[in-house]
From TrEMBL:
CDD domains: PBP2_TbpA (cd13545). SUPFAM superfamilies: Periplasmic binding protein-like II. Gene3D superfamilies: Periplasmic binding protein-like II. It comes from Halalkalicoccus jeotgali (strain DSM 18796 / CECT 7217 / JCM 14584 / KCTC 4019 / B3). GO terms for molecular function: thiamine binding. The keyword Signal applies. This is Thiamine-binding periplasmic protein-like protein. Signal peptide: none annotated. It comes from the Archaea.
Amino acid sequence: MKRRTFLGSGAAVTACLAGCSANPVDSDESDDGTLAVATYGSFVDAPSDSPGAWIKEEFDARHDATLEWHTPDQGINYYIERHNSDVEIEPDLYLGFGPHELVRVDRNTDGELFGQWDESRFEHLADVDEQFYFDPQDRTIPVDSSYCALVYDGRTVPEPETLEDLLDPAYEGRIALANPQGATTGLLFLLWTIDEFGEEGYLEYWQGLLENDVRILDSWADVYTQFEEGEAPVIVSYSNDRVYAKRAGSDLEKHRVAMPNGEAYASIEGMARFAEGTNDGPAHQFADFVLSPEVQAVIAERNVTGPVNTEATPPEVYREFAREPDEPVFFGYDALAEGLPGWIEDWSDAVAGGR
């Protein structure tokens, strides 16, 4: 599988060029007709929209297997703990983790939680854009991409044109974001602030957010619920929010997207096989199914994330309302492996500890 890093410019971009190789998954078959796939909860049941139910229905109809979603509350941490405790991992693969989560897997296991794929079993893998690969050990196949940005209610607050604008009294008590310690959007926003203000200045910026009465909630779902209910008119979410809003018939003025200084943080999700997995054939069938242009287009619309297959054509609503930044921000695997643990610890001490 080709090793690539997302994007080609910017100080935060780190090429994933490590030469390590993961152990291949044992190809012995033990298919009982059920394929268990782990993912995060909102991929199956989001407060906005989700592709999970459609994917299950279509996959079951087209293949001699029954898809079974597993969505543990702890996400990938659940399987790290089971692996380290030498407890059986039931799913055959995990769909929907990013570079920061892969770094967590590798730091907290012996590196054998995930195995490799057999490229010869794929029809659509060759059409995946090389820029989306983020795993230096070639265990992960990209699934979708998006951008972390600011979503705001244009009827009640002005557009924030810079991250510093969020410190203005106009936004006091009106901003909500998810906790970087456990939620992807919160972590991506934290990384964005590190890129913007540097390691010497990002904590000072977060202190300013606290002084402006920012709300730090447990999850993105909690944040989005407050936005929908009008309690928080500015949130950290995704740049494709208006795709969902248009499909739902919502007021598009309520669903405005801001990319301060033309920037947004690039988010890539991938899938990998658990090394203990034994449903070899169905696992590869499912992965190739997810990469097919038709399914990529559905994920683009229902998960509000961009396709990674260059042959996929997103639906018209996505093409019209999805937004990309002029300057994507992104930390690659190597930069995250080196810096992320310390950044999180420092943030926890300075921000979470002072709330």
